[in-house]
Amino acid sequence: MASAPARNNKRAKLAAPVSLADDGVLPTDVLSDILLRLPAKELCRLRLVCRSWRSLTSDPDFAEAHSCRHPLAVGLRFRRGTPDPDIHFLDMSGDIVKRMSLTDCSPEFSVQRGLLCLLSRNRRQASVLNPATGPVSVLTDDIDVEHERMLSNPWTTCVLGQVPSTGSYKVLRILYYMTMIGCKQVCEVITLGDGDSSKRWKAKPGPSTCVAMDSQGIAVVNGVACFLFRSFGIGDPAIVEPDGIALFDLATEEWRPVTLRGPLSTHLSDTDKKLPYQRHRKDLQLARLDGCLVTVHHNRQDCSMGIWFLEDMDKGLWIKRHSIGYMPDCKYDQFILPYPMTVLKDGRIVIWVQLKQVLAAYDPKTGILADLAEVDDYCAVGMLEGSLL
Question: What are the Cα distances from residue 179, in Å, to 134, 150, 156, 208, 255?
């Protein structure tokens, strides 16, 4: 818990932008507390009231404090009669705070703080969207010359992440292709920013075993992109644990040599046999909750999910914090599993239940999972982890 001096320093930071232009009607700290209670849509309109309000609501510390109080989901919905989607930013009641129209976009995205990485329909072109400011940065679709010789029409996915030590954002692109002996993957990395439009993708070695390319098998935590292995096409499944996790370090731009063991494998007793890969891999997801890497294990027998938090990456220490039972009418299949997205300030866990087209919230204090909002017709849903201010 933050100390009193720390809280006062934070409040002083929020007060600073308007202290020089205080109109004297309200004390600055009172004004800040009032404005922090309002949704982003209203604040964007109230910026026009006066210069001091605009200064306060544009301050990064205020924006960060506001995003903690008002988390936003991101939903991708295709417009009827067109191949192009709208992207909606929704509050936890399901109300649309902001909408943006996109063109030439595939039905998935990667989120890192306040930025989104999108792929074109042919999955060759990546772009980065800043919803607060609006501009879309289109990344070159050129494949590194080292890879171009072997790849004609690869299937790709992109992962957006931030390097904590430098604050720089990078996009990791994984290209998947078939050979006579099975699937292969190669990687490329590009660094965002610096206003350098001539930057190109840099070729990097692929993982030793093919990794997942769907968003629910990938999570970025503390500058490390974490991947489950693919559900199929991995060669010999006998040598791969179903909950094993491959790690790509965005700072060094290299795959870590040692696979992180997952919670199911690490908690096997000495007498237990190795977990069958195909049987268990389809029941697993990765997520980032409360800044931690999380493995989600779905139990199809009792219709529940176990949520395991990684406490220590170096030691491979996992702790099971929650076991969440689904509602009786929440049926699911192999490819559409409920997915935990964020932890609210009151401790509730927000879960996207795609088959029911709802956001639900699990309360660990009561053990109750209840609907929060309807999210009809969205093909992809995530959390913004940033602010629209």
Answer: 41, 10, 16, 15, 22
pTM of structure: 0.85
- pLDDT, one tens digit per residue, over 74-133 is 999 987 777 888 999 999 989 898 888 888 888 889 999 889 999 888 777 888 999 888
Contact (CB, 8 A) for 283 and 275: no
* CA gap 287, 220 in Å, rounded: 8
The sheet that has 339-343: what strands, in order across it? 339-343, 349-353, 358-363, 368-374
* Per-residue three-class SS string for the chain: CCCHHHHHHHHHHHHHHHHCCCCCCCCHHHHHHHHHCCCHHHHHHHCCCCHHHHHHHCCHHHHHHHHHHCCCEEEEEECCCCCCEEEEEECCCCCEEEEEECCCCCCCEEEECCEEEEECCCCCCEEEECCCCCCEEECCCCCCHHHHCCCCCCEEEEEEEECCCCCCEEEEEEEEEEECCEEEEEEEEEECCCCCCCCCCEEECCCCCCECCCHHHEEEECCEEEEEECCCCCCCHHHCCCCCEEEEECCCCEECCCCECCHHHHCCCCCCCCCCHHHHHCCEEEEEECCEEEEEEEECCCCEEEEEEEEECCCCEEEEEEEEECCCCCCCCCCCCCEEEEECCCCCEEEEECCCCEEEEEECCCCEEEEEEECCCCCEEEECCCCCC
d(CA 182, CA 233): 7
Closest CA to 74 of 120, 110, 36, 37: 110
Burial of 165 (0-12, 13-18, 19+ CB in 10 A): exposed
